[in-house]
Amino acid sequence: MKEFQEKMQIINNTILLLLGSLFIGLSSGTHEMRPPTGESDHIGVAFYNVENFFDTIDSELNDDEFLPSSTRKWNTYKYYKKLNSFFKAISMCNNGMEPPAITGLCEIENENVLKDICSKSLLKYDNYSYLISEGLDERGISTAMLYRRDVLKLLNHESWIPPGIHSDSMHTRALLYGCFRFRSDTLHVVICHWPSRRGGALSSEKRRIKVARFLKSRLDSLPGYSKILIMGDFNDEPNSLSLKIITKADPAEKKVNEFVNVSKSESGSYKYHGTWYLFDQILISDELLNSKSGLKYRKDSYKVITNKFLLTDDLKYKGQRPASSWWGYKYQGAFSDHLPVVAILDAN
Hints:
alpha+beta
């Protein structure tokens, strides 16, 4: 009898979830009213740390924490609920009726999750394809990218793997690089998830500085005066030394791309022990900032998405916090412990 009741509860929850997804899809009105492909005068970009987006299948990675048999009891219902929550969060990143042309992601377990995002959520109507980094993190929290193939043509992609990536002093994720064509423009995109602050911000800073220097060397290998977009969870704030390594120009170099951090927010994108931090940032090359033709960053378009549905009351500290999937090991069933960030590139 108990097993029957549990099965019926799962079925009822699934029906409610599907009805909720249908309601959101109908109410958003996004699929019939968009401008025809290629006619938009701008493209949106977004970045989102999705907080442990795992499938329910056991793998060779250290994913035991997110299996049906685990303490978290990560099951099919919770997985599909997260798919639905992810769609809702990305819908909040839309610019008008236009979904982001590029969405950078981190904490994605594997390609299966991306396939399901593109085929089993309502994002299947938005012509998304995906990329995921190689050199997988041992826990399965990789960097990834969604891009609209009706807007952008993929030219090339690579995983930029920092040296010593799996050592105790350099545990981090690979950087994901993609090169795209938009009309007559070439756009280079890098998605980052820098080493965490585990063990303390200062003691872990050296790892983020190493990744920053590695990224700078790879950026310097790109053609000079390129249009480059860098998005990620940097686990550091805009004024941190690691970020300044990217944005500080070397006057001795010629034709080296210079960068500006456009990230500004009064609230932040991640809350820890009652304090908001702006870890989720967007950096752009000088060419993308000051372009006189083609793609150009729209001034002050960077923002943290603070839609009320993405927030919840902070019962331990004051104010609100991101409505996350988990609170420690307690299932919350919401979105993520980070808020998404967005920006707009105008197409002159």
